């Protein structure tokens, strides 16, 4: 038998005889009780899931966020899971996210994660992690399509008259679903009711709202407000509720959120061997080398075979950087318009047009085509999309072919006075 006594391990054979049998038996019972206590404590700690509440905002900030944090921490304490809160996006790294079973996006707004942090969260979901979105989580990361699919539908608008917060009638789609079975039908409550665009058809809608019960609805007869689904290896739950501080003291709302949260954590344990998205390498594995400085309004670039870099500047220069020489040169100058027409005093103000766009053909290695988008010199308000051919390091200007012309109707001011900067500024149309 093995015993720990005064920081030392002792091994005693089963047949060992001690001078004081009573003391030995007492010591044995005490050690066994201590061992069970330690084992039980370790077991409870290991089994308690951990949830991260993320509430960073890059645009509008809801006052109810603080109330939401308090309510979620209380919910965790009463239901056997640990809750951490943060507004620090650096928490979205793989080592840290592995501690959590679910991440709750609490009324986040705007672009809150950088590409590496987005990468870490995608991998977290693919491993089997959970996502809960509350209210303005749908008003977040519009430039990240994957997040939109995870969350299930982008925010579009909310009523403003007579108020953004109104009373409305919620309807329970499935009263047998554990996420909603405890809710009344109809469920009348007060909140800010979002309308959504691009709702994923694969989500399972739990609750809708009757737009006839309030003023300002724009989605018609079918207006989802809460839903859940499995996505990309993980589970996601979203609810519109949460604009007002009072929301987070409503027993039924909190029960609905808790049920959704528990569903996201009820799947298989996260397993990173199931992840498909490659992990971003750490930034410290790269070194930044400045290729050229003091450029004059550079707009776009394209990397050519052999790692030569073709780039453009707004005033018309097409330049080519050669890595073997370590410098760039102008290979062509496009005649572009960069100013408005003259006003009544003869002044021509600087505009925002010029040489604006560059890309290379997908079959560049075969056809050597590049495409330029620019406003040609002259008084006509237009832009053109053109195709040129390259021969070695030379841009063949005679190969120019106009593929598309975009015209700009001129605007007149109320007095109809021509020649002003205001009415001559082009309005882009397609």
Describe the structure.
With 430 residues, the protein is of the alpha+beta class. It folds into three domains: 2-46, no CATH class; 48-274, Rossmann fold, CATH 3.40.50.880; 298-424, TolB, C-terminal domain (Neuraminidase). 20% of the residues lie in helices and 30% in strands. It is built from eight helices and 21 strands. The protein has helices spanning 21-47, 65-79, 94-97, 115-126, 145-151, 251-264, 364-367, 421-424; strands at residues 2-5, 8-11, 50-54, 82-86, 102-106, 130-134, 154-157, 165-172, 187-192, 195-197, 204-210, 224-231, 234-239, 298-303, 309-313, 317-322, 327-333, 355-360, 369-374, 382-391, 394-407. The strands form five sheets. A nine-stranded mixed beta sheet has the order 4-3-5-6-13-12-11-8-9. It has a four-stranded antiparallel beta sheet with strand order 14-15-16-17, with no helix packed on it. A four-stranded antiparallel beta sheet has the order 18-19-20-21, with no helix packed on it. The longest helix has 27 residues, at 21-47. It starts with a strand and ends in a 6-residue tail after the last helix.
**Unreliable segments (pLDDT under 50, ≥5 consecutive)?**
1-21, 29-45, 411-430
How far apart the termini lie comes to: 84 Å
The name CATH uses for the topology of the largest domain is Rossmann fold
Shape: elongated
* CATH C-level category of the largest domain: Alpha Beta
Number of structurally distinct domains? 3
Summarize the structure.
With 430 residues, this protein is an alpha+beta fold. It has 8 helices and 21 strands. The chain has 3 domains: 2-46, no CATH class; 48-274, 3-Layer(aba) Sandwich (Rossmann fold); 298-424, Neuraminidase, CATH 2.120.10.30.
